[in-house]
Specification:
Order of helices and strands: HEEEEEEEEEEEEE
Shape: globular
Radius of gyration: 20 Å
Strand order of the largest sheet: 3-7-8-13-1-2-4-5
Strand content: 35-45%
Oligomer: single chain
Helix content: 10-25%
Number of strands: 13
Number of helices: 1
Amino acid sequence: MKRGLVLVPVLGLVCLARAAVAEPVTHAFEWTGGGGYAVKGALQYDSAAISGPFVLAQDLSCFVVEGSQEGAPVGRWALTMLNEETSWRLHFDPVSGAFLVDGQGIWMPQAWNMNGEGNDCGKGGFGFNIGNAAQDICIDNKLIVESQMAPAEPFPAIRVEDFDFPADACTAPPMLSLLTR
């Protein structure tokens, strides 16, 4: 009989542990700018890790954005390209399923490898930005003025069950076996 008494608490702990593990949430997005420019991509995060009303850049486990002009690729940026020199800000409202835009109370709510001047996406690089002047892209360290849209233009995303992220879009979970003791 003692065995049965031990089994019930153990099963309860297993059920609680499974409930505490959240499934990743994925949103895909597309943006159409001026001059035939467009971006598309996706983001992924663990809903249990979000501590405030918005999903922020540091909350993401996967992110990729790809740019095009008239359907021809012009550049891309993925989360593993992030370094200490990258302009990287992201504010996503999971309730409305939209990225914050100018006028929603946060200065430059989106800076995806692009600062407000559009001159820091890197040589041969690509970036996207939403600030108080416009929504626009950067290619090869140059602001593409032709791509600009009004800063308050809505930028929705659609929740998807699956997205085929490229390998460089996702950060790997920390490996506990590599921790020093």
